[in-house]
Each structure stands twice: as C-alpha cells, then as structure tokens.
Specification:
Layout: H1 2-10, H2 15-42, H3 45-64, H4 75-113
Helix pairs in contact: 3-4
C-alpha cells in the first residue's frame, strides 16, 4: 500500500513536467504519419509475398543441407553453415522477386506512355 501512495505523489509533477509531456505528445503527432506509412508498407501484398518467397527459399536450402537435430560431432558448425546458406538463398530469392516486380512496373509504365 505504501508503494502505491508514493507512486501517486511522484506522478503529481510540476509545470515543467507538464510541458515535457505536451512536447512528447506533439512529437508523437508528427511521427504518426511516418508510423502509418510504415505500417501500411508492412501490410502491403508485396511485402507479404517477399516474406513468403524468402521463407520458402530458406526452408528449401535447409532441406538441401539435410539440416536435422540429430547427428554427431560438428553439429554446431554444420547448423551455422546451413543457416548462413539459407540466409543467402533467401536474400537471392527476394532480389530476384524484386527485380521481376521492377521489370513489370517498367513495362506497365512504357505501355501507359504509348
């Protein structure tokens, strides 16, 4: 009980504390546009597709590496190598997908001009 009472006293604040909270609210208002844009980007179908492509490529690479939990010595090195290769494959797959998207956008833009 004593902790709750002391927490209320420290939360009372001074006028300078109120000014600081107003500044924080104003800064939050400015950032909300950027936040909304970022959230919109994350919710876009292209980002969802890129994540799916990366995950598929990574899983395929892990399967090719015969990455299992069983095995003998050197398991840590083998697992690390497999994860590294999976990351490379995911990055390559995302790069290919992005270049395909960019090519399609360029073709559509040329078609719109003509």
């Amino acid at each position: 009980m004593a902790k709750k009472a002391s927490a209320k006293k420290s939360g009372g604040g001074t006028p300078s504390a109120k000014k600081g909270s107003a500044k924080r609210r104003a800064a939050g208002t400015k950032a909300s546009g950027a936040d909304a844009s970022f959230i919109g980007l994350l919710q876009s179908p292209l980002v969802a597709e890129l994540v799916a492509v990366a995950a598929t490529a990574a899983l395929a690479t892990l399967a090719e590496q015969n990455f299992t939990s069983s095995g003998t010595g050197g398991k840590g090195k083998r697992a690390g190598k497999a994860v590294k290769e999976a990351g490379k494959a995911a990055a390559a797959a995302v790069g290919r997908r992005l270049s395909t998207e960019i090519d399609e956008i360029k073709k559509a833009a040329k078609g719109a001009k003509a």
